[in-house]
Amino acid sequence: MVRNPVVAGQFYPSSPSQLRQTIESMVDREAEKQEAIGLVCPHAGYVYSGPVAGAVISRVELKDTCIILGPNHTGMGKPLSIMSHGSWKTPLGEVSIDSEMAEQILAASPHLQEDETAHQMEHSIEVQLPFLQYFRPDIKIVPIMLSFARSEAYKEIGQAIARAIQKLDRGAVIMASSDMTHYEPQESAEKKDRRAIEAILNLDEDELLRRVEKLHISMCGYAPVVSLIAAAKALGAQKAELVKYQTSGDIIGDYASVVGYAGIIIPAAVMHPLVRLAKETVETYVKEGRVIPPPEQLTPEMKEKAGVFVTLHKFGGLRGCIGTFEPVAENVAEEIIGNAISSATRDPRFPPVAPEELKDLEYSVDVLTSPVPVKDKSTLDPKKQGVIVECGYRRGLLLPDLEGVDTVEQQVSICRQKAGIYPDEKVNLYCFEVKRYK
Question: At the topology level of CATH, where does 2-267 sit?
């Protein structure tokens, strides 16, 4: 099926040459692009929202696929709908749907339904396409339309999108299509929009929903933004950045009744060099059976000598954790390489990591301070300090800040179990701190 344009000639020019010229006047070809998990982009007529849309899209390194979440203004079709086959046509040509990605998202979400009707007359996704085509003519899309539902449904859809991206292990950017406050005086609109934008920049979807409801913010795409934030956090996002904000009043000079437009980028998480080294070590060893050498240029953290633990998680659950209490290698870099391989292949609690699992793994690296004897364990904080329990040659270690471990007594008990030390045996207790990299 080809979904034909319904707002060409209204929201944007229907002539290909005029449309291209219009977009060129609104984008910055020289803007520095960045890797992004997602973005928030407005969807009004180009004369109003085009400068904001152009500014934000100009700064994103577009991937093979753009998953576009739009609000349903028409009320047509299923409330939470996805199109998984066909293409969308604009004056600049056709944009194919990424059926593989769409089907994976649909399979991962119990809330989304296959439906074309919701998309037929809706503009919130359509108006984004010419900007995407301008920068990347071969881009594919996954169109998703969100109407009224419980907040848990929006968040679950976002998490399903994240799972699909991780499972397919290929490039995709998520776009939430939304305008901000509608038809209020400039001062009121800016004040409300600042509160909504603040919640988005904090990646706090629950707070965004609270502010939209409490402050009566007429932000049409709050649901797409909630799903975007949930997906972005599942993909490791740590922050968001406001690129541009303005209102229709700033364009036409009428400030009595304006609509707000915000362009926001959620950058891809920057992986710390220590974590990147652990990841590259595991992937190379599992795929090729080869131990990589330390980097030629060591970062300051890599040059130190310290005990190191490398931890692997898969879908939120532990998948391997091996480390050294005290340094045994020349530097932290070599410590990481050895322990990363052990975590992936020699943790007795788990089978060795298989190649097909690599795309699902998350890594963390803990660099330990030197252990010091504990005189009074009441001074310890299990969130800040790990412990070592020693009885003769038997030693058990537990890292700090672990889920479900809230007291020193729990730490000591777990350490005894790990080391095979009975509860009535006298022990020496040591503590240490860690610098955790994720």
Answer: Protocatechuate 4,5-dioxygenase; Chain B (3.40.830)
